[in-house]
Amino acid sequence: MKTKPSLRSLEAFHAVVTLGSVSAAASNLFVTEPAISHLLRGLEKATGLTLFGKKGRRLELTPDGRLFFDETASAMSVLARLDTVADAIRSAKHGHIRLVAIPVVADYSLPKILCAFSKEHPDIDISVNVAEGHRALDILHRGNADLAIAINNSTRDNQSHAEFSSYAMAIGPAERFEPSADAVSLASLCTEPFVALTPGCPFRYALDQHLTRQDLMFSHTLEVETQSAIVKLVSMGFGISIVDAIAAKAETHQISATHFHPPLRWTYHLLSPANVKLSTAAQVFTDFVAKSWTE
User: For residues 295 and 291, what is the distance between their CA atoms, to the nearest angstrom?
Assistant: First the structure.
């Protein structure tokens, strides 16, 4: 084979054989009959095969042509499927999104979003990795995730597609805090046994900095890795704690919660690396999350 056959010549060959004539193929491909004949001659030259013989005024496949057609039929079937897949990708009916999220969002907020999104876009697959803030951003910037949900790190070159603000709440065993009570002082909580996140995670760092500014310190009873573990321990009477409001509000059946002053607030972002174009599926997901976070 001296040259590679063009896709157009293969389409012409497949159309002639399938539809039975040059005229039918020309009509199907919206070209002239001479154009089809030119494409067939080019294909025979590229392959070095005599694909057609004449039987009267009709073209008839040679034995070599029949063998070649059997192979091109499989190829054209794949190409047709590629067209279907491309259309599905363009219309967000197909795709895969790699998402990394910090634990508290992955445990409490994300499941509801994923369930609602999957109902609207059942053919878009999502894989979720759970990692603390700095590690989540590292995963994103190493190219191992398309999107990350984390507190935005200003030293990173990120693009924020959606955001929502949250705050901390004090939690205790059931009935420890009255739901209608006024906010308690942070200082008043420091006299009780405290269940904390392990050092190194952004929430623990933000809380430690907040306490330092108030010249306060908790006496830690236990340190664990996730806020869901804190909620479980507090519900069992290990002490009190301070967690994200999204965890506190989701677990009111297990614990009691209250606001405290001075308050501690932050903002979560749905991030992608700046200057990296999102896939259609990822863009649809960011639009969905932005709408969900503003409702």
Answer: 6
Kindly state the tokens that stand for 182.
């006024």
pLDDT tens by residue, 121-143: 998 899 999 998 889 999 999 99
Give me the CATH code for the 95-163+268-294 domain, please. 3.40.190.10
CATH topology of domain 7-90: Arc Repressor Mutant, subunit A (1.10.10)
CATH number at 166-265: 3.40.190.10
Could you give the residue range(s) of every CATH 3.40.190.10 domain in the chain?
A: 95-163+268-294, 166-265
> Which residues lie below 8 Å from residue 85, measured CB to CB, with a gap of 6+?
94
Buried/exposed code over 33-63 (b: 16+ C-beta within 10 A; e: otherwise): eebbbebbebbbebbeeebbeeeeeebebee
* Terminal Cα distance for the chain, rounded: 62
Q: What is the helix, strand, coil percentage profile of the chain, to 5?
A: 45, 25, 30
CB 268 within 8 A of CB 162: no
Q: Give the tens place of pLDDT for each residue, 183-215.
A: 899 999 998 999 999 988 889 999 999 999 999
Residues 100, 148: contact at Cβ < 8 Å?
yes
Does the pTM of the predicted model rise above 0.90?
Answer: no
For CATH 1.10.10.10, list the domain ranges present in the chain.
Answer: 7-90
Q: How far apart are CA 151 and CA 166, in angstroms?
A: 11
DSSP 156-195: S-EEEEEEEEEEEEEEEETTSS-TTSPPEEHHHHTTS-EE
Please give the Cα distance from 127 to 99 (Å, whole number).
6
The pair of three-digit structure tokens given for residue 157, joined into one six-digit string: 């070159």
